[in-house]
Amino acid sequence: MTATVPEQNEADLKALAKGGRTNVFGFVLRLAARIPFLFIAGRLYGPEVLGRFAYAILVVEFVAQLATLGLRRGLAEALSKQDRPDTHVVGDAMLVATFASALGAAVLIALPQLMFPNSPLNGLDRYLPLTIFAIVWTDIALAALAYRFDVASTVRARAIVEPWTISIAAGALFFYSARDGLILSYVASILAAMLTALWPLWRSYGTPQGWRPRPVELYLLARRNLPLAAADAAEWGSRRLDLAILGLFASPAVVGIYYVAQQVASLPQKLKSSFDPILGPVITRNLQAKNYGEIARQVGQVGFWIIAAQVGIALALGIPGEAVMGLVGPEFVGGTAAMAFLLAAEVAAATAVVSESALVYMARHRNLLLSLGMLALQVALSLILIEMVPMLPLKPEYHGLAQAAAVAAALMLALGFASVAKALLLAKLLGEPLSIWRWTLLPAVATAILIGIGATRLPEWAELALGVPAILGVYLWVIWRWGFGPEDRVLFKK
After folding, report:
1. How many of the other CB atoms lie within 10 Å of CB of 159?
2. For the chain, which terminal residue's Cβ has fewer other Cβ atoms within 10 angstroms, N or C?
3. 3-class SS of residue 246
4. Dihedral, CA of residue 278, residue 280, residue 282 and residue 287, to nearest 10
5. CB neighbour burial string for 49-86, b if at least 16 within 10 angstroms, e if fewer
6. Given its phi and psi angles, is residue 485 left (phi above 0), alpha (psi -120 to 50 degrees) or beta?
7. What integer is the mean pLDDT of 43-51?
8. Taking the C-alpha atoms of 80, 85, 89 and 90 in order, what is their torsion angle to the nearest 10 degrees?
9. For residue range 79-120, what is the model confidence (pLDDT) as tens digits?
């Protein structure tokens, strides 16, 4: 019996809520693992080693992002449109991404200075790009599983195995090599995540019986996903470009401090990706049915959930910012201002990211142009604000930290521009308004700020142990009481 349109819409909302719940749980687990890693990296290895590690990983993951060819999101569309077995489509995706990974890894192995511009090569540093294969295979495997609404595998791989492996390995390997321990622990975490993703992929899809490489199909798959790949790279790059720019002007120690701020601030970012694997298939199905009003409703619904959660986390981490950064080490407290701007940037980006969930299927090229425009604006603003730092009444030793805050502020402004532009474009294409922001957030924000101001007067341990939960708890209570309607509360129903 075929479901009616209202029944299908309700089922979609429940699927979005279930997938979001699962991944939010994964976010909590990832948070629990990220804190020990930052503590170990900051306390044991220090800003200098951490800065070197951060820049190398930045380059490797950027190339991996390109090598994925947009298939993290594009695979759902390919699977929904093909009349071939799903295993064959996944096999095509794996093969074409492997070719791209080989190309990217070869370039970095030949030019290791791209990863380590300001430090000599150590041991096996040159071969770090081989992890690109593992990163790409993991991403495609998880995308394929998400198409079948298996979000739990993403949680296991990305929220449990990967972060806990790097945290445990970083602590253990410090005693083996204080110089290389972080990079070796990263390699271990990537390999562990890959194995955790490939096993359920094989169990769900099985062996691709009768599959043979089809050069024409592979070429068309790659070409079709190039705009999506570029948009993904632009969106990913917007969260890393700040670190790359800062590395050109500031010392490795400042880069290390900024990296910690970035890692703390990126925690809310995981919430946006919590809904991506589920939202993609739902949107593609409604696009085929030309159900544009429902797409606007789904984007607005998920967008509000994401913004509401991100604002709460930004307040809980940002108000006691000095205590949060000080937890990693006293030398990291100077990155508090940068962290505050980065947290605000995540809130500003939410509308752009959720709008893009539909734009990548409806207007890939225009979405790409907006993403590239955002990057250009970010670069321009970063350079302008960095040049203004010497004009500030600061001692020279604080200029590096001020530059860190400058690139974070530039990112916030650029992401705000992208959010407005992409939301307007999507609303125009759908012919429907997008209701993402709600004024009911303001009372919750105001109440949380008042609680936070009181918390900052407590001793540092109490500010973290009592203040953070109090800020978040009061905020969520006000949102639940006055901000959530019946459709919002589906998120918390089984």
Report:
1. 26
2. N
3. helix
4. 180
5. bbbbbbbbbbbbbbbbbbbbbbbbbbbbbbbeeeeeeb
6. beta
7. 89
8. 100
9. 777 677 888 888 888 888 899 999 999 999 999 988 887 777
Q: What is the pLDDT of residue 19?
A: 56
d(CA 24, CA 312): 14
Q: 204 falls in which pLDDT band (50, 70, 90)?
A: confident
The CA distance from 374 to 371, in Å, is 5
Rounded Cα gap, residues 106 and 100, in angstroms: 10
* Mean model confidence pLDDT for the chain: 84
Neighbours of 371 (CB within 10 A): 25
Return the structure tokens found at 257. Answer: 């401090």
Q: Residue 408 is encoded by which pair of tokens? A: 């974070």
The pLDDT tens digits for 339-397 are: 999 999 988 888 888 888 788 788 888 988 898 899 999 999 999 999 999 999 988 88
Alpha helices in 68-208 (DSSP H): 71-81, 86-110, 131-147, 152-154, 162-173, 181-205
Q: Are 321 and 471 in contact (CB under 8 A)?
A: no
Gap between the Cα atoms of 483 and 276, Å rounded: 23
How far is residue 359 from each of residues 48, 364, 369, 430, measured CA to CA in Å?
41, 6, 12, 10
Count of CB atoms situated within 10 Å of the CB of 47: 26
The pair of structure tokens assigned to 295 is 């797409």
Angle (deg, nearest 10), helices 399-430 and 252-265: 40
Nearest by Cα to 418 from 360, 362, 375: 375
DSSP 84: S
Residue with tokens 């062996």: 207
Tokens 């890692």, located at residue: 263
Rg, the chain, Cα only: 22
CB atoms near residue 180 (< 10 Å)? 17
DSSP state of 268: T
Question: Do 182 and 41 meet the contact criterion of CB atoms below 8 Å apart?
Answer: yes
According to the model, what pLDDT value does residue 1 have? Answer: 44
Helix, strand counts (H, E) of the chain: 21, 0
Among 18-22, 48-52, 162-166, 451-455, where is mean pLDDT lowest?
A: 18-22
DSSP sequence for 321-365: HHHHHHHH-GGGGGGHHHHHHHHHHHHHHHHHHHHHHHHHHH-HH
